[in-house]
Amino acid sequence: MKAGIFEPLKFRPFRSLFGAQLFSDLGNWLDFIALQVIVAYHWGLDETAIAAVIIVLGLPWVIIGPFASVFVDRLPKKQMMIICLFLRIMFVGGLFFAPNLYILLLFVFLKGTVAAIYDPARQSMIRFTVHDNHLPEAVTLSQLSVNTMKIIGPALGGGVIALFGAKSPFLFEAAGFFIAILILLTLPNMDEKEMNADIKSEKKNRGNGNYWKELLDGIKHISYTPLLKSSVILSSVAFFIIFLYDGLFVFIAQNLGFTEGNFGLLISAVGLGSVVGSLLMGNWTHWKRKPIHLMSSALLFSGSLIIVMGLGSMEIVNLPALAWVIGAFFLGFMGSGESVPYGFILQSETPKQMMGRVSAAATSLQTFSMLIAPAMGSLLAKWLGVSFVLIGAGGATCLLGAIVLIFIVRRINDQKDIQEKQFQA
């Protein structure tokens, strides 16, 4: 009988881990609107200040996460996650009382640093809480939490601001992290024997346990594992292309005829599409045999949708608002066709005891792509115009998907030729 997406929740350890993730992910997105409202409306600062907040949010994932990941792999994951959540509550308190932009940026950086340590630890724990045959469903549930909270978090944050004031989301965020701590306390320690055995085995293999050697081992593992290396490069380039136009989406929506009142429909449709896509992939897991095929095919389809939106922005293609909303839904739907297989490859192609280092190194590369892309997108928009940036991004997405698919097909044909020659010999 085929296992459904919720099958991993039958295991108590994963249930505790996933429950904590729900509240942690919600906390991550609750303050997304609050930070921008405080900076832009309360302090009257310009776009540069907003950009500074976004950059400082991402920096820890690039410059702290990879270096801290060695300790993530060495230390007990459950205790580390609980400590990280306590620290996040403290830093959210700092955001609540921040009197100016500089203090705000300091606490944004500190909160991001703890998040960059928490997430690799959580990724590591997934493998210890479910059997390998339930890994696709577990990874999909994890991605479903991220995608769902991207929708619920900002919407809830906006509602809380309207009811209780601009800084109130920080209080709800802190409460969410506290609930996550309570749930994590129910996580059994059943994995510790296996974890300690893995760590001891790796220590024996690596000799003296040199910090820099351990750090490089995580990077080397990515470069020496073809499927993992391909997925990391593919997702990083895809993230770069997406964030070229992501910050310009509001201007694209204006060109498509959306007003302030219904612009939110477009964003919500993307989020809803990613949730539906994750649910579908969790119940249909045949893709796990060929995850790169799915990632590259999803890029081809999403690139085509982006090109059509770019042509719509130039008024070459004229469609009603509902059609653009449906297009945005499928854009999100295809996005899950990239993110879920990537998460599965990351988990399945990495030894348990190296998960923290490999996850942090991969995330660092992706976040770096995401940080430099908006500035480049903004410059290109000023030079070429928003519509041309969108069409260019769509074309690059299609090209990326096509190149990977062609490479895969050629590789399969080469393998067939080798097998035929061996058979004839």
UniProtKB/TrEMBL annotation:
Its main location: membrane. Keywords: Cell membrane, Membrane, Transmembrane, Transmembrane helix, Transport. It comes from the Bacteria. Residues 1-413 form the Major facilitator superfamily (MFS) profile domain. The keyword Aminoacyl-tRNA synthetase does not apply. It is a multi-pass membrane protein. One of its GO terms (molecular function) is transmembrane transporter activity. CDD domains: MFS_MefA_like (cd06173). Signal peptide: none annotated. InterPro entries: MFS_dom, MFS_trans_sf, TM_effector. It is found in: Cell membrane. The chain crosses the membrane at residues 20-43, 49-73, 85-110, 170-187, 232-253, 265-282, 294-316, 322-346, 358-377, 383-409. GO terms for cellular component: plasma membrane. The keyword Transmembrane applies. This is MFS transporter. It comes from Peribacillus butanolivorans.
